[in-house]
Amino acid sequence: MSLRVLSRLDTARTQYCHFKAIIVAGMGLFTDAYHLFSIAPITTMLGYIYYDESPHHPIPHAVESAMLAVALLGTAIGQLIFGRLGDLVGRRRLYGLALMLIMAGSIGCGFSMGISKGYILASLGFFRFLLGVGIGGDYPLSATIMSEYANKRMRGAFMAAIFSMQGFGILASSVVTMVVCKIFGRSYPPSLNDPIPKKADIAWRLILMLGVIPAVMTFYWRMKMPETARYTALVENNVLQATQDMERVLDMSDCQIAEGHCLQPSQSSYLLFSKQFFLLHGRNLLACSSTWFLLDIVFYSYPHLQSEIYFMSQHDKDTADTVFDAAFKVARLQAIMACSSMIPGCIAAFFLIDRIGRLIIQAVGFVLMAIVYFSIGVPYDRYWQHHPSALFILYGLTSFFANCGPNTTTFILPAELFPARFRTTCHGIAGAAGKAGAIIGVVLMASLERRVTLIIWGGICAAGMVGTSMFTKETRGTSLEENED
C-alpha cells in the first residue's frame, strides 16, 4: 500500500494549518514555561509570608529547591508516561488530557490550603507535581505533532517557533507578576516591621492561577485537531483515514495527495528496546538523552547565580521595602533575561536551524557556552567578582547561545530521529533524562562555591559538545521516514 499522503506532507507549501499548529502546540510550551519559571518570584513572596524574610534572610535553600524539584520530578514522570502512551493510543487522544492536568495543577496551586505553613507548602508541592506531570506530557506530544505535520523544508523552523513560546511564557509570567505586585503593593505600608502581609498571600495565588488562561484558550483547538497522518498511516495502518484527515488540514484535494511520490510503509516489526531497536536507534537515543541531561544541569541551575550577580550590580539591592518590591525585582530580572537573551536566541535558531542544521548549531552553542563559563570561572576571584555588571552581560550571552543552540535542538532532534511507533516514547525518555539533570542542577549545583560551579558548567558544556558527535545523522531537509531508514 503506497503512502503518497506522507510525501505530500513533506512537500506541501507553508499554509494556514502550519501556523495554527504552531499556536496550538506552542501555547502548551508557553503555559509550561509560565509555571516552571514563575516559582522564583513566588518563593520570594512565600519567604516573606511564612519565614519572616528580609533582604538578608532569604527563604531556606532547601524549601526553594524543593518547590523547583517537585515540579521537575513530575515533568520527568509525565514525559515517560505520556511519551509511551502517545505511541500506544495516539498523539491527539492524550493532547487534551495533558492540558487538563496543567489546568488542574494551575488552579490547585492557587487553592493550596492548610492550617499551618507546612500544610500549605505541602499542598502547593503536590499540585506543582501534578502540574509537572501535565507539563511533561505536553513536551513529547507537542514536539511530535509538529514534526509530523510539518513539511521537511521548514520542519526545524516550525518546531523552533513552538519552542520559542517558552521564552514568551517566561516573559508573560514576569509581566503578570510585576503587574500584580504593583497593584497589590500600592495600598500596603512599606515597612518590614508590619504584620505578615495578607494581601501577598492572595497575590501569589492569583499569579499562579492566571497561568491557566492560555491553556483554556487552546483547549478547544486541541480537541478539534485530527490525529497526525503519520501515526494513522504508519502505526494504525489506516492510509485512507490519514488521507481524509489531511484533506481537512492541508489546502489540497484527494487527487493532489494521490499525485505525490510513492512511499512504502515500513515492514519492520522489531519491538521497543529489542536488540534490533538498540542496533538501529540506541546510539541516537543515547545522544539525545545525554545532551539533554547535560544541558539541563546548567540551564536550570544558572538562574540562581544569575540573580545573585544581577543584584550585586544594582545599587538598590538591599532596599526592598515590602514583599511586593522584592518579588517585583525578581520578576523584572526574568523579564530582562527573556527579552535580551532567551527570545532573541530562539529567534536566531528559527532562522538558522533549517539553513545550517541542528547538529552544527547545537555543537557551536555548547562550545560557546563552555568558552564563556571557563572565561568567567578561571579568573573569577581575581577579576569578575569585582565587575558584576560586565559579568551579568556574559551570563546573558550564555543564555543566548543556549537558546540559539542546544536548548532548542534537544527539543527538536528526538522528534525527528525515531520511527513513528517509537517517536513520542523516545522523546519522553530523552526529556526525562533532561529533567533528571535539571533536578541535579537545582538541588546540588547552586550550593557549590561560585567559581567551582562556573568551571563545572564549562566542563559540562564541553561534554555536551562531545555528546553531539554521537548522533548518526543530520535531519535537516530530510523526511521523517528517511531518518527512520
Automatic annotation (TrEMBL):
CDD domains, sorted: MFS_PhT (cd17364)
Xref: Pfam families: Sugar_tr
Swiss-Prot/TrEMBL GO biological process terms: phosphate ion transport
Keywords, sorted A to Z: Membrane, Phosphate transport, Symport, Transmembrane, Transmembrane helix, Transport
Positions of the Major facilitator superfamily (MFS) profile domain: 21-476
Topology with respect to the bilayer: Multi-pass membrane protein
Transit peptide among keywords: no
Record carries keyword Membrane: yes
Subcellular location: Membrane
Membrane-crossing residue ranges in chain numbering: 21-50, 62-82, 94-113, 119-137, 158-180, 202-221, 333-352, 359-380, 392-413, 425-448, 454-472
GO annotation, cellular component aspect: membrane
GO molecular function, one term: symporter activity
Alphabetized InterPro entries for the sequence: MFS_dom, MFS_sugar_transport-like, MFS_trans_sf, Sugar_transporter_CS
Domain of life: Eukaryota
Family per record: Belongs to the major facilitator superfamily. Phosphate:H(+) symporter (TC 2.A.1.9) family.
Name listed for the protein in its UniProt record: Major facilitator superfamily (MFS) profile domain-containing protein
Native species: Eucalyptus globulus
Upper taxonomic lineage: Eukaryota, Viridiplantae, Streptophyta, Embryophyta, Tracheophyta
